[in-house]
Design brief:
305 residues; alpha/beta; nine-stranded mixed beta sheet; three-stranded antiparallel beta sheet; 8 helices; 38% helix; binds nicotinamide-adenine-dinucleotide
């Protein structure tokens, strides 16, 4: 299984490569990034782990991406202090369009793209439209919202986070939709009153602003490296059950032509199916509102203006 990481010298790419290599996910890693000296150190570093199991790790060019089975894209412009994700749309679009060019003539590519660069939803839509790769093979990474939601619920309910099962769909940003209608603790459905929901929502939506206000150049690299490795495991069949990620929607949940996170069943060729979960009326309304917001900025050619 050949996995290419684009933006590999950065926090997310390096954390994902390390996590996959140590967990035995993949047999060949192609590291792509303009920051070649850092890539060289990563190769030298990871190579030593081959004492545990055989795998190949090397620096690669963008041109080699279509030879990979899975391509993880986390390439991005340098972070600035205290900015929302949407601030990076134009800058990162320049980069992801450059990556899209590599897939010219490869619209029938049989691999899977995992898109992590932010803002995930509009970047993914632009990439999928430009490359013409089957939408089921271009999936956005957004599970961190779900993890933060579970953590917020655990704090409110005074239980351990691993006792909580809960999910977030919608935009990877302020338009995320926490599904209060299907929260479980220890396998039993749980309802929260309005005050509790408000506090949990504040925790969830406040997580990113609290983080970027610290003014470091770090993103949530460990959580994301772990999540990306798990996502690949879902793709290759090592893990089962629903996975939440972004896909360009074609009528699912009444939404068309917008990329957003929905529940998915993953497999070797990407999204096997978009799961049709029943939503409460407020959840449906929030999802429609998020789609409206994204579709207002989502006509790919206008991004560059
Ligand atoms: N989807 C999520 O849940 C999630 C979570 C955390 C971070 N992110 C996003 O992932 C992106 C990367 O985060 P990071 O912490 O790794 O940032 P980073 O700044 O550490 O790394 C970005 C890397 O991209 C490289 N790069 C720039 N232009 C490139 C190009 N043309 N081709 C290949 N590589 C290129 C840079 O050299 C750098 O090494 C950001 O957009 C961040 O917001 C997403």
């Amino acid at each position: 299984l050949k996995i290419a990481l684009v933006g590999a010298a950065g926090g997310i790419g390096s954390s994902a490569a390390y996590t996959m290599a140590t967990r035995g996910i993949g047999t060949e890693y192609l590291l792509v990034d303009p920051n070649e000296p850092v890539l060289q150190t990563q190769v030298m570093d990871l190579e030593q782990l081959r004492i545990k199991r055989p795998f190949v790790v090397r620096v690669a060019d963008l041109d080699e991406l279509p030879t990979a089975d899975i391509v993880v894209i986390s390439a991005a412009v340098p972070p600035e202090p205290d900015r929302p994700r949407m601030h990076y749309l134009r800058g990162n679009l320049t980069i992801t369009r450059q990556i899209a060019e590599v897939f010219d003539g490869h619209s029938d590519w049989q691999g899977v793209i995992i898109f992590a660069s932010n803002p995930v939803d509009p970047l993914l839509l632009d990439f999928q439209v430009r490359t013409g790769i089957d939408r089921r093979r271009v999936i956005g990474y957004s599970i961190n919202d779900t993890l933060r939601f579970r953590y917020g619920i655990a704090l409110e309910a005074r239980v351990r986070p691993d006792q909580v099962l809960a999910w977030v769909i919608g935009e990877h940003g302020n338009g995320c939709v926490p599904l209060f209608s299907r929260v479980e603790i220890d396998g039993a459905p749980v309802n929260f009153d309005e005050d509790q929901q408000r506090r949990i929502r504040e925790y969830l939506l406040g997580w990113y602003p609290r983080w970027v206000a610290l003014g470091t150049s770090r993103t949530s690299t460990w959580m994301s490296g772990n999540g990306l490795a798990e996502m690949v495991e879902h793709l290759i069949g090592g893990l089962n059950g629903p996975w939440l990620g972004a896909i360009v929607l074609e009528g699912e949940y009444g939404i068309d032509g917008v990329a957003m996170t929905v529940p998915l069943e993953l497999g070797r060729s990407g999204v096997r199916s978009v799961l049709n979960w029943e939503l409460s009326a407020p959840e449906q309304n929030q999802l429609k509102a998020a789609a409206g917001y994204l579709s207002a900025l989502s006509h790919p050619p206008s991004y560059g203006r």
